[in-house]
Amino acid sequence: MHVPDTVDPDAIGSDAIDLAPLEIDSAADVDDRPTCRFLTFGCKINQYDTQALRESILELGYRELVGEQAADLVIVNACTVTDRAGEKGVNAVRRLQERGLAGRVLVTGCLSPEDRDACRKLGVEFVVGNEEKDQIPALVEGAELRSVGPRVSDRRRSRSIFDLKTSRFARRTRAFIKVHDGCDDFCSYCIIPFVRGKSKSRGIDEVMAEARRLAENGFRELVITGIHLRRYGADLGLEGGVMMLMRALRSVPGIERVRLSSIGIKVFTDEFLEFIASDDAYCEFFHIPLQSGSATVLERMRREYTSESFLESVAQIRSVLPRAVITTDLMVGFPGETDDEFRESLETCAAARFAFLHIFPYSVRTGTKAAALPSRVPGTVKVERVARARELERTLRENESRRWQSQRVRVLVERVRDGWANGLCREGHQVFFDVSSLPNRDELRHLELDVVITGAATEGRQRTTGPVRLEGELTDAQ
């Protein structure tokens, strides 16, 4: 369970991600093309899918609008990881209609039966599941929705979602590339296997074709993303699928950095770690979902590891890759979580020395096994525990900032503003540095520069939660 990297609080839908449009035509009064806009909720997978849909819709002759403008077509890519998340997509549609900002509305993404019913009651023209997303451009053009298969199992196994393709991500120097969808694990709190179907992998040839398009459009870093990335290739009969894929992507001309999105702890075998260490193009940043540091809570969650085995794997990562940055998700207040179990969870996080924690209180998702578990943790208790977890997070982030003092990193420049540049280093931290003295500073974007870290980002650039932000100075070798 994840939240997106970037959330626009002023978007029409609360927590909707307003991805940078590929084109914005402000001369609406002299352009008779039909208009469209996109609202995205949830994870990087949804962000990728929206980008692919955006490119397909613009190819049909639409132009994209942002802000408070009425559009002929609005596509809402929804998330339903919790009951509240599902309601956000529905509420966004309602607000669009109340403000007269939408003509035709299409809702897609992770949709529970309740979400679908609510959208239909609002008069949404199309309600399209993940397994049917590839049909959206044809639906917009007037085609009818085709059945993926006569049985539920056909939809659960369908690979048609991979028919969506991207070629660029506006205003980014990194590009997501989706290689996996679905999940077979059925963790007790998670609805994803029900709304995204069975674990399925995208063929390497398709991935490589997309990677080449992205490289040709100037992207130097690829972020491999998927619902259960560790499982990549298993359904295709591939051994060591993630390593095979990373090695292949590294061979694409122009690709200089390959990064993994969230990935399960069991991928970190000795062979995998030695593989990562073999080439500094493989970014040593790993977001490894823990969810809870209590062995008993993990058992109720039906996770595939114990807190002890998780810590053993983290220790092995650090022994082979001492510069590695490791982050995690921490769920607070899972049904039945006792004070002792919560304390164990914090102790595990402290022992793992995570760079930062994505902390969130447990929220019910109807249809999961956890929704029926007894001993719900009161809301006031969850609030108090989240606050305690944030105290630990602040300490962890401070320790992480100190760890990088005087270290040299390679930063891929994403933005240059007011004499300062910033971007991600290979280890995943956002780094800011002064470029005001450089005559060519407006040409730095997409370049990778050597920076020596001087400390944590100063006030105004720092965040109280989330990824660590650092400041540094360009090396004399530039």
Contiguous low-pLDDT stretches (5 residues minimum) are: 1-15, 18-28
CATH class of the domain at 1-155: Alpha Beta
Tell me what the CATH architecture of the domain at 1-155 is: 3-Layer(aba) Sandwich
Going by CATH, the homologous superfamily of the domain at 1-155 would be: Response regulator
Write out the strand line-up for the largest beta sheet, numbering strands in chain order.
2-1-3-4-5
Q: Can you count the helices?
A: 13
**Morphology call:** globular
Pattern of helices and strands: EHEEHEHEHHEHEHEHEHEHHEHEHEEEEE
What is the fold's blueprint, element by element?
Blueprint: E1 35-40, H1 44-59, E2 63-64, E3 71-78, H2 83-98, E4 102-109, H3 113-121, E5 126-129, H4 136-140, H5 152-157, E6 174-181, H6 192-196, E7 200-201, H7 204-216, E8 221-226, H8 241-250, E9 257-260, H9 270-277, E10 285-287, H10 295-301, H11 307-320, E11 325-332, H12 339-352, E12 357-361, H13 379-403, E13 408-417, E14 420-425, E15 430-434, E16 448-456, E17 469-474
Parallel strand pairs: 1-2, 1-3, 3-4, 4-5, 6-8, 8-9, 10-11, 11-12, 15-17
Antiparallel strand pairs: 6-7, 13-14, 13-16, 14-15, 16-17
Helix pairs in contact: 11-12, 12-13
Task: Provide a descriptive summary of the structure in words.
The structure is a single chain. By secondary structure, this protein is of the alpha/beta class. Among the domains are: 155 residues, Response regulator (Rossmann fold, 3-Layer(aba) Sandwich), CATH 3.40.50.2300; 71 residues, OB fold (Dihydrolipoamide Acetyltransferase, E2P) (Beta Barrel). 31% of the residues lie in helices and 21% in strands. The strands form 4 sheets. It has a 5-stranded parallel sheet, with helices on both faces. Strands 13-14-15-17-16 form a 5-stranded mixed beta barrel. Strands 7-6-8-9 form a 4-stranded mixed sheet. α11 runs parallel beside α12 and α12 runs parallel beside α13. The radius of gyration is 22 Å and the shape is globular. 45% of the residues are buried.
